[in-house]
Amino acid sequence: MKYSKLFIVIFMVLVTHHVDAQTSFNPDKKFLEARDLALNGQRDEAIELGLQIVEKYPGYSDVWILLGRVNAWEGRYDSASVYFEKAIEQSPDYEDAYNGYLDNLFWGEQYDKAESVLERAEKEFGPNTSSALTYRKSRLYYYREEYEEALDIAEDLYAKKADIDGLLSYISNLKRYTRNSAVGMTVDYDSFQGEISPWQTYALYARTRLGFMGSVIARATHSHRFDSNGTQYEIDAYPSLGKNSYAYVNVGFSNASFFPDYRFGTSIYWSLPKAFEFDIGYRHLKFSEITHILTASVGKYTGNWWLNLRANHVPSSSGGSISGNIQARYYFKGAEDYLMVQFSTGVSPDEEDRDLQSQLLDSYRGRVGYQQLWTPRWMGYAFLGYSYDELSPGNYRPNLNISVGTEFRF
């Protein structure tokens, strides 16, 4: 009897200790701690805590997913795949596991395996496949350089108002790889309210893709200004520098006094996280003297909006000058249909309809416009602008600009 009582006491102590240990180890609280560690850069600590959790609670799928993502961030793609497989094994109907798994395989450039995982997910969810998973299907086509298929899926998601961060930026990037050829025409009319005779400017261009040069545009711009005529010839190229970067190169020449004798420009563009874009570049204009211009901009896609702020700097011995341009676009049913509003001070070196020689910085301009893709092949646009250009101290010249254009794609 004495030993039986002792056994019961020991048993109760052990059970109480086990219950206390279980109670003190709150898996949800520990998961949040592990996630915070991972987001704060303490990834080894996050992995260690995550493994402790799944040792006690092997069915906790969110922890397996966290372990997979942290390993993927560290570039350990094979290890990450093991954890994502564990998450799917525990919860085969949990879509987050598939999304994380696909991201990991994309980063590891394991596209055949990604296709297999995507097929498993589509079989599991069928018609209930979410926009997030469908977006990753588009990304798989993108990584395989099947750009038309990727674009079709992305545009369908946009039309359905899918809540995907950076979707417009992604679609705009895909546009660089599709619809390879086009011809177009623009017409500009500038009225100066009697100060000088109106200007008429006409531009014809053709665009195609040429291997590593990317999209290449040949353009001829003919203008009647200051009671004389002149033509400028240019070539633009947009070579790809990788999946998230590309370059812009421009060369041109002219024998007209109001165009540069020759011009050169280059920029490098980066697509950044959170749907940001950034570029930095240089422009070289040769009139009677050479003008050097440094340019940079930052852009952001948010919802249906694209916002962009650009600055141009002209260096000189006195310190130089800065001009700026802020532009906003509101997109409608697709990435080609938008309303644009622009405000600027100074003159951008990329504006063909401006007087770059008479004045370069002392100018103020507002502009609105609309562009629409009428059919899959035809696009049109129209812009209306008003500028107030300072030619000399106290001497301003108003300018009303009307610009229309169209493009045919094939």
Automatic annotation (TrEMBL):
Gene3D superfamilies: Tetratricopeptide repeat domain. TPR repeats lie at residues 61-94. The keyword Repeat applies. Residues 181-351 form the YaiO beta-barrel domain. SUPFAM superfamilies: TPR-like. The keyword Plastid does not apply. The lineage of its organism: Bacteria, Pseudomonadati, Bacteroidota, Cytophagia, Cytophagales. NCBIfam families: OMP_YaiO_dom. Keywords: Repeat, Signal, TPR repeat. Residues 1-21 form the signal peptide. SMART domains: TPR. This is YaiO beta-barrel domain-containing protein.
